[in-house]
């Protein structure tokens, strides 16, 4: 079966949704992973699809290219979050044919994080969306065990687990631990590479995470050993690298991301994850 890939927003950070979709189509991606939830980060544009003209152009790009929307991000759970603020993005995702909402937990109040995550899942159900929990090494839920605990406790039928290759490696988790994860929790993953050495400082961890991930097979992460434990699901290539984008531009960087992934899978032909 043909491998299926999505172009994730952070790979082309700052690229408007319609342009992302046309780039994805020209390069050969099957999906896009959009960020219509504004994160209020310094210098990051607001691509909320409450903007009717942006929504119209995004819908037109999807229709013209045949590229599909895989997921939207980021329904971040933090102290004091008003989850209703994510409703318009979920409504837009459903209208555009999206399947999943990506979430992560940044509250150190364990029970609060679980309760809000369960509430988020309930809000997503009427839109036919699943909510995928991503553990992030700089967040409150920072490893596989923490994410597993949230999902087991929340007991939401539309909840799942999203493994990011970078985050899994940085968390220090063991690939064998993936065997205990229910297979139905896996719906897509984030694919990338990075230097093998795990940074000792939070600042360096964050810098690499946000701006210096590497093409698959270029770094030191044993990507194959991780994905060999995961069922066949789409791969969303999330590979932010500021220097590469500046040197190559959005489209060429996206192309090289996809080319490196395909080359890696060709070299590890027994891996059928992204089929």
Summarize the structure.
The chain has helices at 17-27, 52-65, 87-95, 110-124, 144-154, 165-171, 202-211, 223-227, 242-267; strands at 5-8, 31-34, 68-77, 100-105, 130-134, 159-162, 189-191, 235-237. The chain is α/β, with parallel strands linked by helices.
Question: Topology, please?
Answer:
Blueprint (H helix, E strand, L loop, with lengths): L4 E4 L8 H11 L3 E4 L17 H14 L2 E10 L9 H9 L4 E6 L4 H15 L5 E5 L9 H11 L4 E4 L2 H7 L17 E3 L10 H10 L11 H5 L7 E3 L4 H26 L8
Parallel strand pairs: 1-2, 1-8, 2-3, 3-4, 4-5, 5-6, 7-8
Helix pairs in contact: 1-2, 4-5
Strand content: 5-15%
Class by helix and strand content? alpha/beta
Output the helix-strand order.
Answer: EHEHEHEHEHEHEHHEH
- Unreliable residue runs: none
* Fraction of helical residues: 25-40%
Instruction: State mean pLDDT (0 to 100 scale).
Output: 95
Strand order of the largest sheet: 6-5-4-3-2-1-8-7
Number of DSSP E strands: 8
Calculate Rg over CA atoms: 17 Å
Shape: globular
Describe the overall structure:
Helix content is 39%, strand content 14%. The relative contact order is 0.15. It has helices spanning 17-27, 52-65, 87-95, 110-124, 144-154, 165-171, 202-211, 223-227, 242-267; strands at residues 5-8, 31-34, 68-77, 100-105, 130-134, 159-162, 189-191, 235-237. It is built from nine helices and eight strands. The protein is of the alpha/beta class and 275 residues long.
List keywords for this structure.
8 strands; 275 residues
